[in-house]
Design brief:
Rossmann fold, 306 residues, five-stranded parallel beta sheet, 10 helices, alpha/beta
Length: 306
C-alpha cells in the first residue's frame, strides 16, 4: 500500500477527508486506482459505474479538458465530458442519498476557462462531495488550484518491462553505442553506423505502435463508457506514458553502457543524457516520436564518435 493511500484511509477513518485532493505521480493508472479505492470507501461499495461517481477526461488529439459551450447544449443541458457538466452534476443531490465523488483525469490539461470555473467550485465545494484531481504534471496546474487542495504523491512501482522485442532492441542499442565509443573508422564505419541508427529508429517506432495497440485492446471494455474523442485522448495519454517509460529504459541503457567503457569522459555522458532529455521534451511538445528520437540518436553519434 502506498503512503498516500495510507494517509487517505486514515483521514477517511477519522472523518477528516479533505474535499479536494490532488494526486500526482508517474502513473495515471496508479493514481486512478488510489482515487477509486477511497471512492469505494465513501460509497461503501465498488466505485465503478456508481451513479454518484462523476468523471472528467481530456478529449481529442490535443487532449484538453473542455469548459463546455452554450452552442453545444442539447435540451438546455451541457455537453457530456465537459467541466460545466461535471460541476452541475456534483452540485445536484446525490443519486443514492450519500456521498458524491468527482475524478478529473490529467487535471493539468484544463484550459484557462475550465480551470477558472473549477476554481470557484474548490472555493465553495458542494456538501458531501470529494473531488480528486489526477496528474503526472502537478507544476502545470494553476497555483490557485493547488493551494486549495491537499496534494499527495502516489509512488507506483512499475511492473518490470518484459517485452522480448524491446529488450533485444536495448541490447542492439548498447552494441551500437559501444561501437561508436570505439571510434568511427576503428570499431565501425560511418555508413554502417548510420544504417544501424535508422534501423533502430524504425524498430523503435514499430515496437511502440505494437505495445500501444496491445494496451488499447486491454481497454476495450471502457469504450462503451466513452465517446470517440474521449477514447482517443485516453489512448494518447497511455501512449505518452508508455513512451516515457521506454525513454527511461533507453537512458538507463545509455548510462550503463557508458559506465562500462574505459575512461569515458563524464562530459560526454552528460551531453548524451541531455540530448535524450531534449528528445523527450520534443515529444512532450507533440513532435512525432521518430523525429524526436532521431535527434537523440544522431546527437549520440556525434558525441560518442568524437
Amino acid at each position: 500500500m502506498s503512503k498516500a493511500l495510507q494517509v487517505l484511509e486514515s483521514a477517511f477513518a477519522a472523518k477528516r477527508l479533505h474535499h479536494a485532493i490532488l494526486l500526482y505521480g508517474s502513473s495515471l493508472a496508479g493514481l486512478e486506482e488510489t482515487a477509486k479505492t477511497i471512492a469505494a470507501k465513501l460509497f461503501n461499495r465498488p466505485a465503478e459505474r456508481h451513479p454518484d461517481l462523476f468523471e472528467l477526461r481530456p478529449e481529442g488529439k490535443m487532449r484538453f479538458i473542455k469548459i463546455g459551450s452554450d452552442g453545444d447544449r442539447v435540451g438546455g443541458d451541457w455537453p457530456p465530458n465537459t467541466m460545466r457538466k461535471l460541476l452541475k452534476e456534483i452540485r445536484q443531490s446525490s443519486n443514492m442519498g450519500g456521498h458524491k465523488v468527482a475524478i478529473v483525469y490529467e487535471a493539468d490539461r484544463m484550459n484557462a476557462h475550465a480551470a477558472n470555473a473549477f476554481l470557484k467550485t474548490l472555493e465553495e465545494p458542494p456538501p458531501d462531495t470529494t473531488i480528486f484531481m489526477l496528474t503526472t504534471r502537478p507544476n502545470d496546474l494553476l497555483d490557485t488550484i493547488r493551494s486549495r487542495c491537499i496534494s499527495l504523491r502516489v509512488d507506483c512501482a512499475s511492473d518490470p518491462l518484459d517485452d522480448d522485442e524491446f529488450l533485444q532492441w536495448l541490447e542492439d542499442y548498447k552494441s551500437w553505442q559501444k561501437a561508436l565509443m570505439g571510434g568511427i573508422g576503428r570499431k565501425i564505419q560511418l555508413g554502417e553506423a548510420m544504417m544501424r541508427c535508422y534501423g533502430l529508429l524504425s524498430r523503435f517506432d514499430a515496437i511502440l505502435a505494437r505495445l500501444t495497440d496491445e494496451k488499447a485492446e486491454t481497454d476495450e471494455g471502457k469504450q462503451d463508457e466513452m465517446d470517440e474523442e474521449m477514447m482517443e485522448a485516453m489512448l494518447a495519454g497511455e501512449r505518452k506514458a508508455l513512451r516515457k517509460r521506454l525513454m527511461g529504459e533507453i537512458e538507463d541503457a545509455c548510462v550503463s553502457c557508458a559506465l562500462g567503457g574505459d575512461g569515458v569522459p563524464a562530459v560526454k555522458l552528460a551531453r548524451a543524457v541531455d540530448a535524450l532529455e531534449k528528445s523527450a521534451g520534443f515529444m512532450e511538445l507533440n513532435m512525432q516520436d521518430t523525429p524526436a528520437l532521431e535527434y537523440f540518436m544522431l546527437s549520440s553519434l556525434r558525441i560518442w564518435a568524437r
